[in-house]
Write a structure and sequence with these properties.
Chain A: It holds the Pfam family GD_AH_C. The complex is a heterodimer of chains A (386) and B (108). With 386 residues, chain A is of the alpha/beta class. Chain A has 14 helices and 14 strands. In chain A, the strands form three sheets. Chain A has a seven-stranded parallel sheet with strand order 10-11-9-8-12-13-14, sandwiched between helices. In chain A, strands 4-3-5-6 form a four-stranded parallel sheet, sandwiched between helices. In chain A, strands 2-1-7 form a three-stranded antiparallel sheet. Chain A is globular and about 60 Å long. The chains are: A alpha/beta (386), B mainly beta (108). At the A-B interface, helix 6, helix 8 and helix 10 of A face strand 7 and strand 9 of B.
Chain lengths: 386, 108
Amino acid sequence: MTMIKGYRRPNGKVGIRNHLLIIPTVVCANHVANRIQQSVPDSVAIPHQHGCSQIGEDKDRTFNILAGMGKNPNVGAVLLVSLGCEVINAKELQEVIQQTGKPVEWIDIQDTGGTINAIQTGIKIAKQLSNDIQKIEEVDVPLSELILGVKCGGSDATSGLCSNPALGKAADVLLAQGGTIVMGETTEIIGAEHLVAQSAVSEEVAGKLYACVEKFEKEVERIGADMRGGNPSPGNIAGGLSTIEEKSLGCISKAGTAPLKDVLSFAEEIPGNGYYFMDSPGNDIECVSGMAAAGVHMVCFTTGRGTPTGNPIIPVIKITGNEHTAIKMSDNIDVDTSAVMKGKETIEEAGQRILETVIRAAQGELVKAEILGHQEFSISRISISL
Amino acid sequence: MKLANDQDVTSIVMSEIDNVATLLKEVQAGESLQYVLNGNKFELTAKQPIPFGHKIAIKPIQPSEYVVKYGQVIGAAVVLISPGEHVHVHNIEGIRGRGDKKKGDKQS
């Protein structure tokens, strides 16, 4: 059995990283959160645009993503920074994250008495939390504990020909060992949803998948535009992808061939082992952020054009099938599968190399996006700001 | 699975019912290229310069006819496309995600 390294949390879940996460509950608290983060090495912050002037499902989405980021087992402790008058209820957020058993502290800028006091108080608390989580010992855990997100972005023709099929092979091996795969990007199965639905374990699951796609397509209809130009993007088009259908058909192979167990809503906590689809935008940062909030440990991200995407709390492994990108963006690319395009390597062999990279990253080796400090985070919007 | 087992093969056809091939290298106008279909090697002359990763028609595609890659529909031709022509956004369109087309106006 393949073993990885993990940090066992009080609720029994295992993380492969041990981050102190600083969460601003609202855009107004971003600056204070960032200043605290800058003073505490090894901490990460997730500044974002939301948390106020939101109602209904938009408010819920922001809350759920912030809560999910805090609950992700890659996070050892959390510091919440609120302003005091926003829509997101910091106390409630603290209580939800505390259900994991990890330490969750909270400071409020209005209560603490302004920016300087809040930064000073926040640094003190964060230093203590950072100190505390350093004492958590790593343990050996089976690979079956791993929840891997599969994502593609900055796709070109090579994505569908080699990097996605190779990632699919790695996904098959991980699932055979009892692990978990999460695929998102509802917009990027448009035109290929019938093939994903064929793998669903039941008619009900297939129906949920079709409903997600229909919801997105109705929205495109409402906007009244051709989605080409937005998705596929100008870069996808320059890379040879002519329509969303072509892009989607290249996308779906990255999840492998296992039965689709269920379709989850955006940022919904992954319920168990197996292969799941998460209803999400195709947008790279929004999708990876939603996966992290759902409890994904790591994302394998294929990119033909080359994109640097990372995340504050989960490693994002970059895989390309484009030999030019592998050379030009070598500081971003973890796995080059372009030998498949030349017939010098099989898709299975490339998949094995991806899996080995996943295992090393799950044993603590930093991936390129982590080394470079890429920590992109964003929360998708549903409706208007009030 | 191997995509190409021969250095001479310069483009790839993913399924036997496809009417396009994907180029494994950039080609110039008049350059000939090879693809393998059902175990047989075929040759084709590019009518325009076509970049790496882009598609070339291997069969005539009539206006409104489906463009097929991976054995699946990736869109429809908007003009007649002859074998050897570059197949891309200038001569094919998507069928899905077309908010610009009124409902019922979609090609079935």
